[in-house]
Amino acid sequence: MAISQIEIRPGWVRLANRGSWLLVLAALTPLFFFLGRPVTVDDTLYLRAAEQILRDPWHPFDSTIAWFTTPTPLWVASKNPPGLAYWFAGVQALGGSNERWLHISLLPFAIAAVLAGGRLARRFAGGSGWVTAVWVASPAFLVSASTLMADVPALAFSLWGVALWVEGVDADRGGARRLGALVAGVALFVKYTSVLVLPILALYVLLVVPAQRRAKALLDLWPSLPISAAWAALDIATHGRSHLVASLWVVDASRRLSFSGWFLEQGIALLTFVAASGIFPALFLVPALRVSAGRWLVVLAAVLGIGASLVSQSIWSAVPPWVAAGAGVLVAVGAAALLTASREVLRGERDQVFLAAWIGLHAIFIWFWSWTVAVRFVLPLMPPLALLLARALGPHRRSLLAATTVGAISVSSVVLQADAFTGQFHREVISAVAREAQAGGRRVYFVGAWGFQYYAERAGMRWLDPLDRTVRAGDLILQPHYVANSIMPPVFKPRIEKAAYIDAPVPPLRVHTMHPRVGAGFYASSWGPLPFAIANQPAAGASVWLVTSE
The pTM is what? Predict the structure, then answer.
């Protein structure tokens, strides 16, 4: 069915039929096999804030955490608002403190994101369930939904905010607009980058509403502000400044002034992550190759891919040549998708302009401001990108989207397993070392953050403070590999010797999500230009050090 034949009716809030709902929800099936996955990466920050909230709900970040090289206030270490932490605090207060219950508690947000995606697909792409299923099935969504981080909950609120706002603008219903703005405001209290939704809402008004009624419609954005204003007031009262403003400055601005050290790395990773973690963006090649202008965009994308493959090894010096070549291919695919999407602005049709601007705003933010590129950061690009793709594919889109959805679920299932594998290894290693140390009457210290820290502290291990004078001969130090901030403090190096090295096995199907030697940087592109990679390498390892002198 051609785009010109899509009929937009007031009843767009429903999907075309019940089968479409079931189809989209079925794409969530892989999540149910990973409800017991270990705590990972920044999950620990949210759980630590939840613990603090249970002690003092008015001061969610008033505790310290050994997240960097010194004990750090949680207010500084956490770069997101406490909305999700309050949710976890409620879950834990009801007795749901283990991993399985915490993951189950986030399933409603994944389902809510799917349902909001269905509403938007009905409005912008004719309502086929495949339009939503294709991005729900992607690793960007499914792997992010398997963590305990705020990305999918924030996406759910953001999509509902957009859907309700668009409905209110289309039907000139102020109540729906204000409800959409309120929901968008909740998204901002869950994740600060959700602030990007607010200009998207305003843009839709500018595109759709006649000039004489725009001011009235724009005033309906006010419900998006009270929650964040209250949080800012609490911040200023307790810490003297706004947490939102402080969280904007994650990286030294001088790095952003380095073209080779920042913009090239960010730009390459943005394109590779869009292509690989979304899977479906490769379908943009189909409409692009139909017209001469699109074919020129594909040629340009290919040139960008060749250039990226040539410079990737100079940016990520530890990666092998095949990673640079793979990055070049993915850059070409990602560039073709984003260039084709941006070309829609030239068509002048308001829906295409709206979707392209939605994509472009997030892409620009990631490239020029985000401290790194991560799959969870490109996730907000996926729904509007899929909507624009569906409009561009034309009459054969159903079969193309269906086949891509099946392929994406297969890839996502493998990446889900790989992403949980390292955390499971760390959890088992910590448990084994703790049991052995307890039997021998030894104390165990650890270095490293992320989920490793969560399990080490639960096992009774102490973070190795460089200034700690209580470490004595006979104590053990557990040091994981490929975990943030796991460098041994230099002051201890003359006092230790290696007692054991615990090898990690090669993960299933040899897929890695965080491994600098194979260029995999799912959660931080500084580790590599690919979100995940295939290599016959152990997933991780851990060293056990014996303190030999006082």
Answer: 0.92
Q: Minimal CA–CA distance to 173: which of 383, 13, 348? A: 13
How many CA within 13 A on the CB side of residue 93?
13
Could you tell me the pLDDT band of residue 26, with boundaries at 50, 70 and 90?
confident
pLDDT at residue 81, as a whole number: 95
Q: Which helix (H) or strand (E) holds 285?
A: helix 285-288
Q: Contact 486/477 with Cβ under 8 angstroms?
A: no
CB 336 within 8 A of CB 297: yes
**Which long-range CB contacts under 8 A does 429-432 form with residues at least 24 apart?**
429/478, 429/480, 429/502, 429/542, 430/455, 430/456, 430/459, 430/461, 430/478, 431/455, 431/459
As a whole number, mean pLDDT of residues 167-195 equals 95
Is there a contact between 449 and 433 (Cβ–Cβ < 8 Å)? Answer: no
For the cut 70, the answer to whether the pLDDT of residue 20 exceeds it is no
**The token pair that represents 89 in the structure block:** 């605090």
pLDDT at 459 over 60: yes
**Chain length of the chain:** 550
In SS3 terms, 472-535 reads as CCCCEEEEECCCCCCCCCHHHHHHEEEEEEEECCCCHHHEECEEHHHCEECCCHHHCCECCEEC
Nearest to 352 by CA among 392, 394, 395: 392
| HSE-CB for 23 with a 13 A CA cutoff | 22
Q: Which of 57, 151, 158 is nearest to 116 (CA)?
A: 158
- The C-alpha atoms of residue 341 and residue 387 are separated, in whole angstroms, by 10
Under DSSP, the state recorded for 37 is: P
The answer to whether 92 and 104 have CB atoms below 8 angstroms apart is: no
291-311 pLDDT tens trace: 888 899 999 999 999 999 999
Q: What six digits make up the tokens of 344?
A: 């829609």
Count of alpha carbons within 13 angstroms of residue 10, beta-carbon side: 4
Report which DSSP code applies to 318.
Answer: T
Give me 390's structure tokens: 């569906």
